[in-house]
Amino acid sequence: MSHEIKKTGRILRAPENFVDSRLAEEISKDGMNKERRGFLRRSFLAASAAMASGTALAQAAASSFEGDSNILTLPEHAKTLGKPVATNAYGMPSKFETNLLRRESPGLTRVSAASVAFTPLQGLFGIITPSGLHFERHHQGWYDVDPSKHRFMINGMVKNPKVYTMDDLMRMPSVSRMHFIECGANTAMEWGNVAVPTVQYSHGMLSCSEFTGVPLSYLLEDCGYDKKNARVVLAEGSDGSAMTRTISIDRALDDVLVVWGMNGEMLRPENGYPLRLVVPGVQGVSWVKWLRRIEVGDKPYATKDEAIHYIDAMPDGTFRQYTSIQETKSVITTPSAGQTLLDKGFYNITGLAWSGRGKIKRVDVSVDGGRNWRTARLETPVLSKCLTRFNIDWVWDGSPAVLQSRAIDETGYVQPKINELRAVRGTKSIYHNNAIQSWKVAESGEVSNVQVY
Questions:
Q1: pTM, to two decimals
Q2: C-alpha to C-alpha distance for 25 and 16, rounded to whole angstroms
Q3: Are 259 and 219 in contact (CB under 8 A)?
């Protein structure tokens, strides 16, 4: 490794993920003018890049912190007694992280209690989404259901229809698996050339968690499903919208779970407490919350949410139905729209990739709008139907750039460009947009949402 000391660039986060709310308000109100950029450059000290020589690193660090009272003066918290363990019975984030929140889009129509809250992808690390930041999509609002009164039934083409209590289910052999969940309408606004301001709004109907529950195959066997004639199952929720979805019997017997746990604790109410379905690789609407019933049948049910909603408008005027798989997709989360690069120098480009058909095999990154590509590092673990974190080094020279990522899964499927996707799907779609996302870096360092054809 070179002994040359390289200046490390710094990123100003998007306003909703910046700890100084007053500065965020100024930026939102007046934009990042020259005076503010100068102030921020002086306020943030550039860190030194990693070097082989420990002496050089120490010298660089000493030089960087010269005159900085935050390192020269012992802080008050180092001289006082801290708070006791039980300050909060349930642990909460630092008060300095309060701007990292799920956010609703003012551009989306609210019907009754139906709503969407987007995960702040730009502020997360690794692949697991904290339960408190997991995206929400409700068709009739959420409920906090009494688990002692909740019942789950399996009927239809089975020898022994059964009703289970939560105690019954939680006594059964359980498994824990990590999977992503993505709404079929994630990135929907990009179909219509709408440049939403941040990755939270463009891709934030996406989360990844560890789910704990019993395989649906175990319960179907317990009820003696008709192995000769069964073709599908119908999952039904107990919410006010009576959300119901058809799932093929092959998928139901493969990796579908009936879950009560998420990220090591019980499901949150907004995520379906006390019971929901997990259908890995399939759009989130099939992950039925407040799950009350599974019916085994011999043909698709064509319920309201699969006959007139969650269908794909095609260029010839027809509609595709039961297109549930979430195809290979990726997005750079940092640097991304709404953020600002404060200096030239080294940056770590990072993002997420996922596929509803299995594992991510490779992610390529371009900084020139797709003319040239480099292969990124895939961070472990790389799991099937799970988010995969990727990273790649980049030295920004201060000139305009267009950042893109392109994922390839283990089946060989390559994430398409937006014009390639539109050539097949047209321009009237809402669902299943897995096109390459582009972020433009201006000479000022400001990052914005653009489309590259």
A1: 0.86
A2: 10
A3: no
